[in-house]
Amino acid sequence: MLRTTVLTFVLATVAAFGQPTLAQSVAADGLLRDPAGRALYVFDRDHPWGASNCYEGCAETWPAFVARIGAEVKGELSVHARTDGQMQWGWNGKPLYYFAGDHDPGDAEGDGLGGVWHAVRATATEAERSVQVAPEIPPWQRF
Questions:
Q1: Radius of gyration of the chain (CA)
Q2: Which of 41, 85, 93, 120 could form a disulfide with 32 if both were Cys (CB 3.0 to 4.6 A apart)?
Q3: Domain residue limits, the chain
Q4: DSSP 114
Q5: Spans of the chain, pLDDT less than 50
Q6: Pair 78, 51: CB distance under 8 Å
Q7: Among candidates 99, 82, 89, which has minimal Cα distance to 132?
Q8: What is the DSSP letter of 11?
């Protein structure tokens, strides 16, 4: 009985704090950005509609845009399971990343790097239908 009560509490807490924050997603420059104004990128070597190919050293330079538990998917957004156990936001089926070289909001220094990394550009029609999600909040900041 106690174990069931504790499990119910834990699941309710995860559900309550796991919901993403939704807002407009496309900046004035037409780039898809997170709530802090950081550019989001796609990787040509990822599998469309699925798996990321960016782990270990690659993920240090190009960290995943991590989705929260219970993330709501709308419009062009998708969520992809990573082999490291995290969930990653995607745009039109392609996983989304940050670039470690972008130091300030508004930067998009990773656009075009290696010919395989691209800042996500959205058309006005996509922008009207799209949403922006908050990145994963560390567990110690959730309560």
A1: 16
A2: 120
A3: 2-136
A4: G
A5: 1-24, 124, 126-135, 137-143
A6: no
A7: 89
A8: H
